[in-house]
Amino acid sequence: MSHSPASPLLQIEGLHVRVEGKEILRGVDLAVNRGEVHALMGRNGSGKSTLSNAIMGHPRCEVTGGRILFQGQDLAELPTDARARLGIFLAFQYPMAIPGVTVANFLRAALRATRGADAPVKDFRRTVTAAMDELGVDHAFATRYANDGFSGGEKKRLEMLQMSLLQPTLAVLDETDSGLDIDALRIVSEGINRLRSPERGFLVVTHYQRILRYVQPDRVHVMIDGRIVRSGGPELAFELEERGYDWLDADAGVGEAAR
Ligand SMILES: Nc1ncnc2c1ncn2[C@@H]1O[C@H](COP(=O)(O)OP(=O)(O)OP(=O)(O)O)[C@@H](O)[C@H]1O
Ligand SMILES: [Mg+2]
């Protein structure tokens, strides 16, 4: 296994992905270094969630070309749980409700899956309580069923709680475009800013530059039709807010006959 400190944390090269027989990603190139926050933007259906899922190794994402390297290691043969153990974390765009499983047990299972061993109950309680206090979450939260009837803000709290417990090296946050009020936005932003460190990288999928007022991204990427067609600094997010995505369609070759 190579863990060359010179290689980017995440390097995606010419990635092609099919979902249920349909080509969704059509040659994605992306590199995220340690210490960086990257924002991924793009219209609905452009392939942002597909890219997030492919990084995590979702079985529905069939990689038909290119590769995903994490700290120089090709992830191709690794199932999702192995990727989580390497330090990759994915927060889903639409987190699933898990009736019957409390937040505490959900977090415990997540920790067990990534660490490969259970922490003693007492230590676990202490860790969760500390993380809750840090995030300003009521302790009663731990006894509720995970994501069951949760508000948008509560889902984000659980997401951030999970992330701060797992301390991932690479966090991919697939954020929703709806239902995120200013409160939820702050929860996510603060969660990212708190964990931001020279050791860690973030890929944040977002529709609006609103979140980028709180989280200063190092790079902003635009995905159109399964490709990253433009990358830039934070100013690109503001440009998109003003101009939308249409002006980039020419770069994406949208409408070309040869596809
Ligand atoms: N299970 C599936 N079967 C067929 N097509 C799918 C499936 N899942 C996703 N797709 C298609 O893949 C394309 C990309 O979807 P994806 O969810 O990655 O987009 P997105 O950029 O995350 O969109 P949004 O901004 O709405 O979250 C869409 O055209 C979608 O319809
Ligand atoms: Mg999506």
Could you explain the architecture of this structure?
The chain is of the alpha/beta class and 259 residues long. It has a single domain (10-252), classed as P-loop containing nucleotide triphosphate hydrolases (Rossmann fold, 3-Layer(aba) Sandwich). It contains 8 helices and 10 strands. It has helices at 48-56, 80-86, 103-115, 121-135, 152-166, 182-195, 235-243, 249-252; strands at 10-19, 22-32, 37-41, 61-70, 73-74, 88-91, 170-174, 201-205, 219-224, 227-232. Strands 6-7-8-3-9-10 form a 6-stranded mixed beta sheet, with helices on both faces. A 4-stranded antiparallel beta sheet has the order 2-1-4-5. α3 (103-115) runs parallel beside α5 (152-166), α4 packs across α5 (152-166) and α5 (152-166) runs parallel beside α6. The model has no long low-confidence stretch (mean pLDDT 90). It binds adenosine-5'-triphosphate (ATP) and magnesium ion.
- The CATH architecture designation is 3-Layer(aba) Sandwich
What is the CATH first-level class name?
A: Alpha Beta
Tell me the CATH topology.
Rossmann fold
Q: Averaging pLDDT over every residue, what do you get?
A: 90
Provide the helix percentage: 25-40%
Give a short account of the largest sheet: 6 strands, mixed
How far apart, in Å, are the first and last alpha carbons? 37 Å
Tertiary shape: globular
Bound heterogens, unique: adenosine-5'-triphosphate, magnesium ion
Strand order of the largest sheet: 6-7-8-3-9-10
Could you say which structural class the secondary elements and strand pairing correspond to? Answer: alpha/beta
Helix and strand string, N-terminal first?
Answer: EEEHEEHEHHHEHEEEHH
